[in-house]
Amino acid sequence: MITIRTIEEMQKRMIEYRQNGKTIGFVPTMGYLHEGHVALLQEARKANDIVVLSIFVNPLQFGPNEDFDRYPRDFARDEKIAKEAGVDVLFYPDVKEMYPHEPSVIVTVKERVDVLCGKSRPGHFDGVATVVTKLFNIVMPHRAYFGMKDAQQVAVIDGLIRDFHFPIELIAVPTVREADGLAKSSRNVYLSEQERKEAPVLYASLQKAKALIEKGERNVETIRQAIITEISTKTSGTIDYVDIYSYPDLKPLDKLAGNIIIAIAVRFTNARLIDNIVMNVK
């Protein structure tokens, strides 16, 4: 595995790979790697000649009161995990490399962002789309791998690839979970011991909603209230949202039908956890 820190060197190497007929699979991350990231790398390893991992904590996607400085970073640990996962190229630029000056152009996302996490984080997905656009142009991958835990992000990247005509295949990889159902996340380390015991209720509430739908329930509000009751009675967390939309368009539904997402966000003392399930309702 080689580590590259400059855009110039990265582009030069990627062009060489492509000229030699190599396929490139790309996993963009903000580091502090866990099994969810490893699952993305394993999927990339199966289908590509070259696997590229980027680690960059992107300041553009953090709001003024969010945890950019507190976001966990441990490059030595990440490097070891990347090597073990079969990464060929680790792209590790610093902020000055990615943003040498105030950007004169940024990507503004118009659809799929005024709901779920985007509703309370204005500008967040503009930051995501801007850095992903930059990374796509630097890495020039054939396939890009994103985890469905951040399903809204996957929907935004789907729109970005479609609207900007990137010749890239988007691969959405299922959420990786702990044995008790909790979605793997870099922010899980911020949960207290008691909160960690309560956190699996989030996924359990989504499973309860899925079971109701499979039994024939089609009323959106009935499903929402079942989840809200489960979380509010069995955890100390504060619910940010419990929402159901079409997927990936993220449009409101009067009645459950077609491809849908049931998504939740819950705030604990020092961590905000998100989770979702996507299912097809006939």
TrEMBL record:
Binding site for ATP: 30-37, 147-150, 176, 184-187
GO cellular component, one term: cytosol
SUPFAM superfamilies: Nucleotidylyl transferase
UniProt xrefs under Pfam families: Pantoate_ligase
Location of the protein in the cell: Cytoplasm
Coiled coil: none
Keyword check for Hydrolase: no
GO MF annotation list: ATP binding; pantoate-beta-alanine ligase activity
Any one GO BP annotation for this protein: pantothenate biosynthetic process
Active site as annotated: 37
Pathway entry: Cofactor biosynthesis; (R)-pantothenate biosynthesis; (R)-pantothenate from (R)-pantoate and beta-alanine: step 1/1
Positions annotated to bind beta-alanine: 61
Residues holding (R)-pantoate: 61, 153
Superkingdom in the source lineage: Bacteria
Record bears the keyword Glycosyltransferase: no
Catalytic activity: (R)-pantoate + beta-alanine + ATP = (R)-pantothenate + AMP + diphosphate + H(+)
Record-annotated membrane-spanning stretches: none
Keyword field: ATP-binding, Cytoplasm, Ligase, Nucleotide-binding, Pantothenate biosynthesis
EC number of the protein: 6.3.2.1
Family affiliation: Belongs to the pantothenate synthetase family.
The protein's assembly and partners: Homodimer.
Its job: Catalyzes the condensation of pantoate with beta-alanine in an ATP-dependent reaction via a pantoyl-adenylate intermediate.
More details: The reaction proceeds by a bi uni uni bi ping pong mechanism.
Name of the protein in its database record: Pantothenate synthetase
Origin species: Thermolongibacillus altinsuensis
Upper lineage: Bacteria, Bacillati, Bacillota, Bacilli, Bacillales
Gene: panC
